[in-house]
Amino acid sequence: MNEEERILFVDDDANLLASFNRQFGRRFNVVTATGAEEALKLLSEGQHFAVIVSDMRMRGIDGARLLAEFNRRAPGTMRILLTGLNDQSIAVRAINEGHVFSFLNKPIELDELQSRLEDALAHWRIRKNEREFIDRTVNDIVLS
């Protein structure tokens, strides 16, 4: 498994996180965090993630605020928000503040979530390659 392509699942429901780990742990490099504070601690420790999947409604910091913070501190991370709430203002806030890649409603079929994870990773790879190309080009210009 590619160590760079880690997926962080964030929820305050430990059973749901265990389920995600069982369902996707063989296919993807999965890390879990029980709540936004734990996810931000991982980020503060210098851990990097290709994708973060966060629940919206959690104790303390909600998913939209968490994804907005990831957008600010780790803008290369693809952000996915899961919610069981049918409130359009949540979607608007998540998109405007967290610049989410995908907004998904619960309950979600595991096949659909896997497809979204694969899409997010593919998009992350493209953006990573673009950043590396730009860095090489700038370095070539500076060194020549």
Summarize the structure.
This protein is of the alpha/beta class and 144 residues long.
**Sheet having the most strands:** 5 strands, parallel
Number of strands: 5
Could you please say which CATH topology applies here? Rossmann fold
Low-confidence stretches: none
**Helix proportion of residues, in percent?**
40-55%
Spell out the CATH superfamily. Response regulator
Strand content is: 15-25%
Order of helices and strands: EHEHEHEHEH
Tell me the radius of gyration: 16 Å
Q: Estimate the mean pLDDT confidence.
A: 91
- Alpha plus pi helix count: 5
**CATH 2nd-level architecture:** 3-Layer(aba) Sandwich
Total separate domains: 1
Main-sheet strand order equals 2-1-3-4-5
CATH class: Alpha Beta
Structural class of the secondary structure composition?
alpha/beta
Distance between the termini: 37 Å
Gross morphology is globular
